[in-house]
Design brief:
Chain A: InterPro entries: VPS16, Vps16_C, Vps16_C_sf, Vps16_N. Chain A: Belongs to the VPS16 family. Chain A: It is a peripheral membrane protein. Chain A: This is Vacuolar protein sorting-associated protein 16 homolog. The complex is a heterodimer of chains A (about 900) and B (about 600). Chain A is built from 32 helices and 28 strands. Chain A is an alpha+beta fold. In chain A, strands 1-28-27-26 form a 4-stranded antiparallel beta sheet, with no helix packed on it. Chain A has a 4-stranded antiparallel beta sheet with strand order 5-6-7-8, with no helix packed on it. In chain A, strands 14-15-16-17 form a 4-stranded antiparallel beta sheet. In chain A, strand 23 and strand 24 form a beta hairpin. The relative contact order of chain A is 0.04. Chain B has 4 domains: about 110 residues, 3-Layer(aba) Sandwich (Rossmann fold), CATH 3.40.50.2060; about 180 residues, Rossmann fold, CATH 3.40.50.1910; about 110 residues, Sec1/Munc18 (SM) protein, domain 3a (Syntaxin Binding Protein 1, Chain A, domain 2), CATH 3.90.830.10; about 90 residues, Alpha Horseshoe (Serine Threonine Protein Phosphatase 5, Tetratricopeptide repeat), CATH 1.25.40.850. In chain B, the strands form 4 sheets. Chain B has a 7-stranded mixed beta sheet with strand order 5-6-13-12-8-7-11, with helices on both faces. A two-stranded parallel ribbon of chain B has the order 1-2. In chain B, a hairpin with a 2-residue loop joins strand 5 and strand 6. In chain B, helix 7 packs across helix 8, helix 16 runs antiparallel to helix 17 and helix 16 runs parallel beside helix 18. Chain B is globular, with a radius of gyration of 25 Å. Chain B starts with 15 loop residues before the first helix and ends in a 5-residue tail after the last helix. The chains are: A alpha+beta (about 900), B alpha/beta (about 600). Chains A and B meet through helix 15, helix 16, helix 18, helix 20 and helix 22 of A and helix 5, helix 7, helix 8, helix 16 and helix 18 of B.
Chain lengths: ~900, ~600
C-alpha cells in the first residue's frame, strides 16, 4: 500500500517561478532538514540562496566566483559548489564560507563539467549518520569519446555519531568525468591521460599520485557517442560504474570493463534513458526508450520485476522508493507533470505534478520538492496499515475503536476489548498502536493512537512501559523539530537511524541552541554529552559576534556556562582567537579552571610570559619546559634570563636541564644573576670534570677563587687557593719523584710521601699547609705502622709528647699484630685509658690491678668481660672481691 | 618475641595488584615491537624490573638479549647512530619509566634520532616491596627536590597517589607537612577533580593518609640504625627489598641474594627488634629447630613419613634462613661491636641530648683526621649542625678545613650543597630566629612564593631541634636501664635514647586528628604554612578504616622509622602502610649530597 504524496510543510515561500530546477539541480539534503539551495547562473551575478526544508530562507549571497557546474550537500551539512575549473567551494548552512579545495584543473577540452547533462550531480546523501553507506556523486562530461575520469567521493569514516564529511576525490582527464564513492575504501581516481591512482585526503587536501596505470575506455568500449546514462554501483565495498551506451551496458572498475546484460530484460531495447540505484545500493532500476522499466539487484544477477509504462519520453528523474526492510519495492518516475510509482504489480499509481518538482530518495521514502510544496512519498508502515485499513479487524484497529467507544461512554468499548482479549492479542494491539503513532505526522492522530495504547495497557498486568514512554518522548522531540520554524521534517525511522546526538548537532548547526538544550533537558541526557556540549557550541558562536564588546561576550558566556562540567573554556577561547579576538580569548581563558589547558593557546597567541606563569601554576613541569623552550627561541638571551629570574621554579628546572645538556648556558645564567657562589662552584666542578691539563685546572680554580671572593666567601676562596697550590706542588712531586700525586687530598699526599720515605718533604708540606698536629700524628702513625717501620715509629713517638695520647699507638700496633711493640706504648698510655690499653695487649691481670686501683666500676666490668677461661680465674675473683669491698664502703 | 598485632587491627589491602598492573603494561609495551628484540636496561632499573617481570617472562615475550646500561645519557642515540653508520635498520623503542619528560624528547631530537625511535611511557611508579611497604624506587628524588629544587617528580608522585586512590581509595582524611607534601597533595587533588573518580561511592578502606617531607626531620635519618632491618641496610645495603649476603655471611664461597620481606618467617620476627635481642632470639630459635628435628628419634614409620612429607621441607627452609641470619648477625657484630661503634653511638646520643658538645666536636674532628669514613664524618657533622642549630663559625671552618684536607677539595661543593639543603650550616651571629621567620612568612604570603623552592637556598633552613625535642619529649627520661627487650616507646629503635621526630609527629597528629595544639612545633619546624589537614565532611570512614594509615615519606624513609611506626601500630591497634620515594639511610642521604669525581 502506498501513501500518496503527503504535504508536510507549511506553505513555503519559494521564490518565483522559472527559477527552480532549470539549469541547476535544486535539491535538499535528505533526511534531516532540507535547506533549499538554488542558484541563478543567469546573466552577471547569480545569487546563491539557501532555504530550510520548510522554505524559510536561511541565506542568500551573491555568487562572485566562477561558473558553477554542480552543487551538493555533505553529510555535515556543508554546501559544496563545484566550479568549472575544478575548484570546490565549501559553504556552511548559513552561507558562511568555510574553505575551498581544488580537484585539479582540467586540461582537456571544456574544463570541468562543461556541457553537463541535467542533474548529473546526484547529491550526496547525508542520511546515514554513521556513514557506513557511501555518499556519491558524479559528473559526466561528453565532448570526446574518451571516457576516462573517475572521481571518487570519499566518505571519511568517523565512528562518532556526528555526521562525517564526504570528500571529493578527483583527478584530471581529457574527457568525461565522474564522481563516485566507494563506501569504505579510500577514494580512487583514474584517468586515461595520466592514469594516476590517487587517494585523496580531504582534510589535508593533498593529492598523491601513487602510480601509473594505463587504462583507456575508448579502446575497450569503442565509445562512439556519449553514454546515455550511467551510475555508480557498489559491490563488496568496491565501486563500479554502470554505463549505458546505446543498447549495451558496461560495468567498469579500476582495472577492467565488461559488457553486462541484465537478466530477463525485454527485447527491443535500443537505448537506456535513466538508471537508478536504491538508497541501500542493493537494487537497480533501468528505464529504456521503449518505456520499459527493469528492476533487479544491483549486481545485475537477478531480476525482481519489470513494468511497462508505455511512455517513451525520457523521464526527468527516476528514484527508488522503499523502506529498508520492506518487500514492497517501488520506483518513482517523474516527468514534467506526471509522477508514477511502479512496483511488482501490473498497475501503477500515478499522480499529477502541478509544478516543476525534484525528487530526493531517502531511507524510507522519497521527498518531492516543488516551488510551493514539500511532500513525502512513502510506503505505509505495516502497523498503520493494519490499524487504518478499511474494515480492519487487526487487534490494533479494534483497540483504537474500543478506546473511541470508551470515550463516548458506550458499552461497545467492552465488546471490542473482550474480542481482543479472547484472542489473547491485547499486547500486540498496544504495541501496534504505539508503533503506528510513531509513523503519524499529525499530533492529533498520534495522541489518539497513544491514548488507545494507554487504554489497552490498563488491562494488561505486566506490560513493560518503556516502549510507550520512549515513543511519547520521541514524538515530542520529533514534533518539536518538525515545526516549520525549525524545519527538520524527519520521519520516525529516519530519526531513529540518525540518533539523538546527530539531531542535536543539526540543531546546533542551525543555531537553534535553546531548542537543543530543551531537548537535552527533556530527555535527561548527561550534561557532558548534552547541555554542556551545546552551551560550548553556543559560546563558540557567540565569540564570533563581532559587534559585541569583548567584556560583554566574556561575561555573557561565563554567566551562561558558569562551571558547567565538561565545558572547556580553552576551546572557546581558541575559537575566539581563531576569529582574531585575542583579548577576548585571554579573558575567556581566565575562566578556565585547569591552568594547564590555558598554556598551549597562550603560547599560540604569543603571550608566552603569561603562559609561563600559568604553566607553573599547573605544577606540570613538562608544560613549564615547553613554554621555556618556546621563550628561549622567542626572546633574546638577556630577556629570557630576566624572565627566568622572576620564576624560581622555572629557573631551577632550566638549571637542571642545563646541568645535563648545556653547561655553558648554566654559566651564563649564574653570571646574569651575579650568583658568584654558584659560579665558583661551577668552576670548581669544571676544574676536575672538564679540564684535563693542569694549567687549565689551575686557571679554572683561579676563576673560582675570584668568584668566591666576590661572593664574600673567604673560606671557599682560601680553600680553592690552597688547592691551586697543592696541585702545582703535586705536579712538581710527580716530576721529581715519579708516582701519582695529582688529585690526592692533602692528607693522602702527605701519607704517600711518608710511605715513599720522603719524611722531610712530608714535614715541609705539613708546615706549608698548616696541618694540625693531631692530624699529623694520626697520619704519621698510620703510615709508619703500614710500613711496619717500628723503629721510626718509636723515634716519632718520642719526638715530643703525643697530642693524641698513646692509646692509638697501642691500637695500631695490635692491628698489625705486633704485641711486642704494643706493650712498649701501653705503659705510656695515660691513666684514664690505661685499662683499655692493657686489655688490648692482653694483660688482663695488670688491667685488673689498674681498674681496682682506680676504683672504677665501669672499668672493672670491662676487665671482667675480658676474663676468659681458667687462666683469668684468679683475676676475676680479685675483681669480684674488690667490688664487694667497694660496695661495703 | 615478635609482637602480635592487636586482634582488632585492620587487615592490610592486597598490593600485589600494583605488580600485576605494572607487569601487564610492560608486556603490552614489549609486544608492540613484535618479534625478537634486545632490551637495554638502565642499571637503576634492573632490580625493580626483576621484581616485576623476571627474565623468563621477558623471554616469553621474545626479549632476546638483555644489556645493562651503566652510563645514563644518550645511550639510545649512540646506538641508533652507530647502526645508521653501519647501514643497519632496526626498530627502536625507548621506554621511559615512570614518566617521559618533555626534555627526554628534546635530547633525542638533539641527538638526531627522534624520528628513528618510538617513545613510550611505562608508568611503573609503585613497587610493593613488602606487605606494608610501597616504594617508588626514586632515590634521585631526594637530591633533585631537596637540593636542586626540581619539581619534576612531584607530578609522578601525584600520579602515584592518584593510582592508589583509584585502586584502594578514597582516603577521607589527609594530613601533611612540608612544602613538597603540600604541592603533591594539591596536584593530586586536582587530578582527582579532573577525573571524576569512581571511588566516590566506595567505602574508604584506608581512612587516613599522612604526607611528610624528609626535610622536616633530617635528624632521624642521620642516626645510626640499631634495629635489625635497619642495621642490615646500613651494613649490607638492602636494594629493592633484597640484599646480597657476601661469603662472610653465607659461610660458603658464594654470595647469595636474599629477599627480605614478611615471607621470610625468621626475618619477619626479628626485623623490628633491637639488635641486642636478635642474637639471643636466633639461638633460641635454633634450639627450637633442633628440638623439632630431634622429634624424629621417637617416631614410628608412619609418623616419620608424615614428618618427611609435611614438616621437613618447612624445617629445612627455616634452617637455611636461620643460618643466613645468624651469619649476618655475626658479620654485623664483628663490624659493630668494636669500640669504635660504641663510641660513635655514644657521641650520637650525646648530640641528640645536647650534652658534651665540645667533646663530640673533637670526636668528629678526630674521626675526620683519621680518615675513618668520609660519609660517616659528614653524617656526624650534619647531625651536629642540625641538633645545634648550625655550627659555631669557628667549628664550621675548622671542621670543613679538616674534611677538605682529608678527602679532597671537590667537597667544597659538597659543603655548598649541604648548606643549601640546610643540613650543614653556620650559626650566623646576630641573625636572630625571628628575622629569619619574618622573611619566611613574607615569602609565603605571596601566592607565587608558595611555589618557591629555592627559598631555602637564600635563607638556609634553620632547625630548632632542641626546642622541638623538648616540646615533643623526644628524649625519654628513663630511670635506670631502658629495657630493650620490652620496649615502652618508639625510642627503642635508637636504644631508648631518642624517639624519631617524624614518627612522633605522625603519632601526635593521628591522636589529635589534626594539627591543633601543635602550632608551636609546626612553627619551630618552619612549616607554619605548610602543615595541612583535610577531613571529609561526611565521615563515612569506619573506625576500622581510620586505623589503617598510609604514611607517605617524600624523600625517603629509613627502616628505623618503619620499625618505630610498626611498633606504634601494635601498641595502638593501627596498621601503617608506608609509601616512600625510596628507602633511605644516613649513608644514602650523604651520598646524594656529595660531589664526587666522576
Amino acid at each position: 500500500m502506498w501513501c500518496g504524496p503527503l504535504e508536510l510543510v507549511h506553505r513555503p515561500a519559494w521564490p518565483g517561478p522559472g527559477q527552480l530546477g532549470q539549469k541547476v539541480s535544486s535539491q535538499t539534503t535528505a533526511l534531516l532538514r532540507n535547506p533549499w539551495r538554488k542558484e541563478k547562473p543567469a546573466s552577471a551575478r547569480p545569487v546563491l540562496e539557501i532555504y530550510s526544508a520548510s522554505g524559510v530562507p536561511l541565506a542568500s549571497l551573491l555568487w562572485k566566483s566562477g561558473p558553477v557546474v554542480s552543487l551538493g550537500w555533505s553529510a555535515e551539512e556543508e554546501l559544496l559548489c563545484v566550479q568549472e575549473d575544478g575548484v570546490v567551494l565549501v559553504y556552511g548552512l548559513h552561507g558562511d564560507f568555510r574553505r575551498h579545495f581544488s580537484m585539479g584543473n582540467v586540461g582537456g577540452p571544456g574544463g570541468w563539467g562543461k556541457g553537463m547533462e541535467s542533474g548529473t550531480l546526484s547529491l550526496p546523501q547525508p542520511t546515514t549518520p554513521l556513514s557506513r553507506r557511501c555518499s556519491r556523486t558524479g559528473f559526466w562530461m561528453p565532448g570526446s569519446s574518451i571516457l576516462s575520469l573517475v572521481l571518487g567521493w570519499l566518505s571519511s569514516q568517523e565512528p562518532t555519531a556526528s555526521p562525517s564529511v564526504p570528500t571529493w576525490v578527483t583527478s584530471n582527464s581529457a574527457g568525461c568525468q565522474r564522481c563516485q564513492v566507494s563506501p569504505d575504501t579510500p577514494g580512487a581516481a583514474f584517468t586515461a591521460h595520466r592514469c594516476a591512482f590517487c587517494p585523496w585526503d580531504h582534510q589535508r587536501q593533498k593529492l598523491w599520485a601513487l602510480g601509473s596505470l594505463r587504462w583507456s575506455f575508448s579502446t575497450t568500449i569503442g565509445l562512439q557517442s556519449a553514454p546515455s546514462c550511467w551510475t555508480t554501483v557498489c559491490q563488496d565495498r568496491v565501486a563500479h560504474i554502470l554505463l549505458a551506451v546505446g543498447p549495451d551496458l558496461y560495468l567498469l572498475d579500476h582495472a577492467a570493463c565488461s559488457a553486462v546484460t541484465p537478466p530477463g530484460l525485454a527485447p527491443g531495447v535500443s537505448s537506456f534513458l535513466q538508471m537508478a540505484v536504491s538508497f541501500t545500493y542493493r537494487h537497480l532500476a533501468l528505464f529504456t526508450d521503449t518505456g520499459y522499466i527493469w528492476m533487479g539487484t544491483a549486481s545485475l544477477k537477478e531480476k525482481l520485476c519489470e513494468f511497462n509504462c508505455n511512455i517513451r519520453a525520457p523521464p526527468k528523474q527516476m528514484v527508488w522508493c522503499s523502506r529498508p526492510r520492506s518487500k514492497e519495492r517501488a520506483v518513482v518516475v517523474a516527468w514534467e507533470r506526471r509522477l508514477m510509482v511502479v512496483g511488482d504489480a501490473p498497475e501503477s499509481i500515478q499522480f499529477v505534478l502541478d509544478e516543476d518538482s525534484y525528487l530526493v530518495p531517502e531511507l524510507d521514502g522519497v521527498r518531492i520538492f516543488s516551488r510551493s510544496t514539500h511532500e513525502f512519498l512513502h510506503e505505509v508502515p505495516v502497523a498503520s496499515e493494519e490499524i487504518f485499513k478499511i474494515a480492519s479487524m487487526a487487534p490494533g484497529a479494534l483497540l483504537l475503536e474500543a478506546q473511541k467507544e470508551y470515550e463516548k461512554e458506550s458499552q461497545k468499548a467492552d465488546e471490542y476489548l473482550r474480542e481482543i482479549q479472547e484472542l489473547g492479542q491485547l499486547p500486540q494491539a498496544v504495541q501496534q498502536c504505539i508503533e503506528a503513532a510513531g509513523h503519524e505526522h499529525w499530533p492529533d492522530m498520534q495522541k489518539s493512537l497513544l491514548r488507545a495504547a494507554s487504554f489497552g495497557k490498563c488491562f494488561l498486568d505486566r506490560f513493560p512501559p518503556d516502549s510507550f514512554v520512549r515513543m511519547c518522548q520521541d514524538l515530542r522531540v520529533l514534533n518539536a523539530v518538525r515545526d516549520y520554524h525549525i524545519g527538520i521534517p524527519l520521519t520516525y525511522s529516519q530519526y531513529k537511524q540518525l540518533t539523538i546526538q546527530v539531531l542535536l548537532d543539526r540543531l546546533v548547526l542551525r543555531r537553534l541552541y535553546p531548542l537543543a538544550i530543551q531537548i537535552c533537558e527533556y530527555l535527561r541526557l548527561p550534561e557532558v554529552q548534552g547541555v554542556s556540549r551545546i552551551l560550548a557550541h553556543w559560546a563558540c558562536y557567540k565569540v564570533q559576534q563581532k559587534d559585541v564588546s569583548d567584556e560583554d561576550v566574556a561575561r555573557a558566556i561565563n554567566q551562561k556556562l558558569g562551571d558547567t562540567p565538561g565545558v572547556s573554556y580553552s576551546d572557546i577561547a581558541a575559537r575566539a582567537y581563531g576569529c582574531g579576538r585575542t583579548e577576548l580569548a585571554i579573558k575567556l581563558l581566565e575562566y578556565e579552571p585547569r591552568s594547564g589547558e590555558q598554556v598551549p593557546l597562550l603560547l599560540k597567541m604569543k603571550r608566552s610570559k603569561l603562559a609561563l606563569s600559568k604553566a607553573i601554576e599547573s605544577g606540570d613541569t613538562d608544560l613549564v619546559f615547553t613554554v621555556l623552550l618556546h621563550l628561549k627561541n622567542e626572546l633574546n638571551r638577556g630577556d629570557f634570563f630576566m624572565t627566568l629570574r622572576n620564576q624560581p621554579m622555572a629557573l631551577s628546572l632550566y638549571r637542571q636541564f642545563c646541568k645535563h645538556q648545556e653547561l655553558e648556558t648554566l654559566k651564563d645564567l649564574y653570571n646574569q644573576d651575579d650568583n658568584h657562589q654558584e659560579l665558583g662552584s661551577f668552576h670548581i666542578r669544571a676544574s676536575y670534570a672538564a679540564e684535563e691539563r693542569i694549567e687549565g685546572r689551575v686557571a679554572a680554580l683561579q676563576t673560582a677563587a675570584d668568584a668566591f671572593y666576590k661572593a664574600k666567601n673567604e673560606f671557599a676562596a682560601k680553600a680553592t687557593e690552597d688547592q691551586m697550590r697543592l696541585l702545582r706542588l703535586q705536579r712538581r712531586l710527580e716530576d721529581e719523584l715519579g708516582g701519582r700525586f695529582l688529585d690526592l687530598s692533602l692528607h693522602d699526599t702527605v701519607t704517600t710521601l711518608i710511605l715513599s720515605g720522603q719524611n722531610k718533604r712530608a714535614e715541609q708540606l705539613a708546615r706549608d699547609f698548616r696541618i694540625p698536629d693531631k692530624r699529623l700524628w694520626w697520619l704519621k702513625l698510620t703510615a709508619l705502622a703500614d710500613l711496619e717501620d717500628w723503629e721510626e715509629l718509636e723515634k716519632f713517638s718520642k719526638s715530643k709528647k703525643s697530642p693524641i695520647g698513646y692509646l692509638p699507638f697501642v691500637e695500631i700496633c695490635m692491628k698489625q699484630h705486633n704485641k711486642y711493640e704494643a706493650k712498649k706504648y701501653a705503659s705510656r698510655v695515660g691513666p684514664e685509658q690505661k685499662v683499655k690499653a692493657l686489655l688490648l695487649v692482653g694483660d688482663v691481670a695488670q688491667a685488673a690491678d689498674v681498674a681496682i686501683e682506680h676504683r672504677n666500676e665501669a672499668e672493672m666490668s670491662l676487665v671482667l668481660s675480658h676474663c676468659t677461661g681458667a687462666t683469668d680465674g684468679a683475676t676475676a675473683d680479685k675483681i669480684q672481691r674488690a667490688r664487694a669491698q667497694a660496695q661495703k664502703k | 618475641m615478635a609482637f602480635p598485632h592487636r586482634p582488632d587491627a585492620p587487615e592490610l589491602p592486597d598490593f600485589s595488584m600494583l605488580k600485576r598492573l605494572a607487569r601487564d603494561q610492560l608486556i603490552y609495551l614489549l609486544e608492540q615491537l613484535p618479534g625478537k628484540k634486545d632490551l637495554f636496561i638502565e642499571a637503576d632499573l634492573m632490580s625493580p624490573l626483576d621484581r616485576i617481570a623476571n627474565v623468563s617472562i621477558l623471554k616469553q615475550h621474545e626479549v632476546d638479549k638483555l644489556y645493562k646500561v651503566e652510563n645514563k645519557p644518550a645511550l639510545s642515540s649512540s646506538l641508533v647512530n652507530a647502526d645508521k653508520m653501519a647501514g643497519r635498520t632496526r626498530k627502536y623503542k625507548v621506554i621511559f619509566s615512570p614518566q617521559k619528560f618533555y626534555a627526554c624528547e628534546m635530547v633525542l631530537e638533539e641527538e638526531g634520532v627522534y624520528g628513528d625511535v618510538s617513545c613510550d611511557e611505562w608508568a611503573f611508579s609503585l613497587l610493593p616491596l613488602d606487605v606494608d611497604l610501597l616504594s617508588m624506587e626514586l632515590p634521585e628524588f631526594f637530591r633533585d627536590y631537596f637540593l636542586e629544587g626540581d619539581q619534576r617528580w612531584i607530578n609522578t608522585l601525584a600520579q602515584a597517589l592518584h593510582l592508589l586512590s583509584t585502586l584502594y581509595g578514597p582516603f577521607p582524611n589527609c594530613y601533611g607537612i612540608g612544602r613538597c607534601a603540600k604541592m603533591s597533595y594539591e596536584l593530586w587533588k586536582r587530578l582527582e577533580e579532573e577525573e571524576d573518580g569512581e571511588t566516590k561511592g566506595r567505602r574508604p578502606e584506608i581512612g587516613q593518609i599522612f604526607l611528610l617531607d624528609r626535610d622536616v626531620d633530617f635528624v632521624t635519618a642521620l642516626c645510626s640504625q640499631v634495629v635489625y632491618e635497619g642495621l642490615v641496610d646500613d651494613t649490607f645495603r638492602i636494594k629493592c627489598g633484597s640484599v646480597d649476603f657476601g661469603p662472610e655471611v653465607t659461610s660458603s664461597d658464594k654470595s647469595l641474594k636474599v629477599l627480605l620481606n614478611a615471607e621470610d618467617k625468621v626475618f619477619n620476627e626479628i626485623r623490628n627488634e633491637h639488635f641486642s635481642n636478635v642474637f639471643s632470639f636466633l639461638s633460641q630459635k635454633a634450639r627450637n629447630l633442633q628440638a623439632q628435628y630431634d622429634r624424629r628419634r621417637g617416631m614410628d614409620i608412619k609418623q616419620m613419613k608424615n614428618f618427611v612429607s609435611q614438616e621437613l621441607k618447612g624445617l629445612k627452609q627455616e634452617h637455611r634462613l636461620l643460618s643466613l641470619h645468624i651469619g649476618a648477625c655475626e658479620s654485623i657484630m664483628k663490624k659493630k661491636t668494636k669500640q669504635d661503634f660504641q663510641e660513635l653511638i655514644k657521641t650520637e646520643h650525646a648530640l641528640l641530648e645536647g650534652f658534651n658538645i665540645r667533646e663530640s666536636t673533637s670526636y668528629i674532628e678526630e674521626h675526620i683526621d683519621r680518615q675513618v669514613s668520609p660519609i660517616e664524618s659528614l653524617r656526624l657533622m650534619c647531625l651536629l649542625s642540625i641538633t645545634e642549630n648550625g655550627l659555631i663559625p669557628k667549628d664550621y671552618r675548622s671542621l670543613k678545613t679538616q674534611y677538605l684536607q682529608s678527602y679532597g677539595p671537590e667537597h667544597l661543593l659538597t659543603f655548598s650543597n649541604l648548606r643549601r639543603a640546610g643540613l650543614l650550616t653556620e650559626q650566623a651571629p646576630g641573625d636572630t630566629l625571628t628575622a629569619v621567620e619574618s622573611k619566611v612568612s613574607k615569602l609565603v604570603t605571596d601566592k607565587a612564593a608558595g611555589k618557591i623552592t629555592d627559598a631555602f637556598s637564600s635563607l638556609a633552613k634553620r632547625s630548632n631541634f632542641r626546642a622541638i625535642s623538648k616540646k615533643l619529649n623526644l628524649i625519654p627520661r628513663v630511670d635506670g636501664e631502658y629495657d630493650l627487650k620490652v620496649p615502652r616507646d618508639m625510642a627503642y629503635v635508637f636504644s631508648g635514647a631518642y624517639v624519631p621526630l617524624s614518627c612522633r609527629i605522625i603519632e601526635q597528629v593521628l591522636e589529635r586528628r589534626g594539627w591543633q595544639g601543635l602550632d608551636e612545633v609546626v612553627r619551630l619546624l618552619n612549616c607554619s604554612e605548610l602543615a595541612f589537614t583535610d577531613m571529609t565532611k561526611d565521615d563515612k570512614a569506619s573506625s576500622e578504616s581510620l586505623r589503617l594509615i598510609l604514611v607517605v615519606f617524600l624523600g625517603g624513609c629509613t627502616f628505623s622509622e618503619i620499625s618505630a611506626l610498626r611498633f606504634l601500630g601494635r601498641e595502638k591497634g593501627y596498621r601503617f602502610i608506608f609509601l616512600t620515594t625510596a628507602v633511605t639511610n644516613s649513608a644514602r642521604l650523604m651520598e646524594a649530597m656529595s660531589e664526587v669525581k666522576a
